[in-house]
Amino acid sequence: MKANKLGFAGVLALSGLIAFSSVSFAQTNNPPQSPPAGAGGPGGRGGPRMTPDERLKQLSEALSLTKDQEAKIKPILQDEAKKMQAVRDDTALSQADRRAKTREISDESTKKIQEVLTPEQKEKYAKLPQPKGKKGGGKGGNAGGTQGTNSVAP
């Protein structure tokens, strides 16, 4: 009988140790880290943003831009980046208003860029992956079904 009580106490002690160690482990896990500066929107979605120079290089390679076209497109991209940053910094805007404003800025830039392109470049441009924030609305990303195409017709 004495051995039975000792065995029961051992099992009870072992169970308590396992239960407390899992609680202790859960409390020592590192909390999720905040996204690095320049990362995508809420929750860090989207990764780091491209600079206007990086975007220009990407467009130049994809579309075989001339030096004259690059000189015309660079200020468009710089202006877009400045306006987008101002929208991100405006804490008074709701998420929906911010999304609408960024889409408006992006559409405006797309239209200006297309005015500089040749018809062949416009076709290629329409097939390029879109910059962050130009996919359909909502968290699903492709809600509008337009991923991979620009919203302004050539």
State the main characteristics.
154 residues, mainly alpha, 5 helices, disordered C terminus
Q: Please trace the helix and strand order, writing H or E for each element.
A: HHHHH
Task: Give the fraction of residues assigned to helices.
Answer: 55-70%
Low-confidence stretches: 31-44, 133-154
End-to-end Cα distance = 90 Å
Q: Tell me about the biggest sheet?
A: none
Supply the number of helical segments.
5
Give me the Rg, rounded.
Answer: 27 Å
By secondary-structure content and strand pairing, the structural class works out as mainly alpha
Mean pLDDT: 73
Oligomer: single chain
Strand tally is 0
Percent strand equals: under 5%
The shape is extended
Report what the structure shows.
The chain is an all-alpha fold. The protein has a domain at 50-122. 60% of the residues lie in helices and 0% in strands. The protein has helices spanning 2-28, 52-63, 67-89, 95-116, 119-127. Helix 2 packs antiparallel against helix 3 (67-89) and helix 3 packs antiparallel against helix 4. It is extended, with a radius of gyration of 27 Å. The relative contact order is 0.09.
Break the fold down into its secondary structure elements and pairings.
Layout: H1 2-28, H2 52-63, H3 67-89, H4 95-116, H5 119-127
Helix pairs in contact: 2-3, 3-4
Provide a quick synopsis of the model:
This protein has helices spanning 2-28, 52-63, 67-89, 95-116, 119-127. With 154 residues, the protein is mainly α.
